[in-house]
Design brief:
mainly beta; four-stranded antiparallel β-sheet
Length: 137
């Protein structure tokens, strides 16, 4: 994890495919979590950090296409608890304040433990899923 301060300044640059995975999410405030696949890099932060049990939180994230990949046509975020085989009791929504920058709202972890945060990127009829793990106390 890397601490970076600032606003969403680097997001549009990343969305244009001009950034490497290391630069994706450079403008996100707080501790950045990074996910990568061959086609995309995702950088995200949770607000607040750490995520509290039983309270809604926000995920701000950047999606950076890699190589010849196009920006996704749509993006979804969700979470599940693999050890218990269940997800959240809420359906989050995603907004995009500008190209490449996203905000997931309405997330709530109702119990402590391991949660997998999933990002579904839909492009050209195919969905690519990137997953990050959060340990909630």
């Amino acid at each position: 994890m890397n601490a970076v301060r600032g606003a969403f300044g680097a997001m549009a640059w990343c969305a244009a495919g001009a950034c490497a995975a290391q630069a994706c999410g450079e403008g996100l405030p707080g501790a950045i979590h990074a996910l990568e696949s061959s086609r995309y890099a995702i950088a995200f932060v949770t607000l607040p950090d750490p995520v509290p049990v039983g309270r809604h939180f926000v995920v701000d994230f950047a999606v950076c296409p890699r190589g010849d990949a196009k920006p996704p046509q749509s993006v979804r975020v969700d979470a599940s608890m693999p050890a218990h085989r269940h997800g959240m009791n809420y359906r989050p929504s995603v907004t995009s304040p500008r190209p490449g920058a996203y905000r997931g709202e309405g997330l709530l972890f109702h119990m402590p433990g391991r949660w997998d945060l999933t990002f579904d990127l839909v492009s050209a009829g195919a969905t690519e899923r990137l997953t990050g793990t959060l340990h909630i106390q």
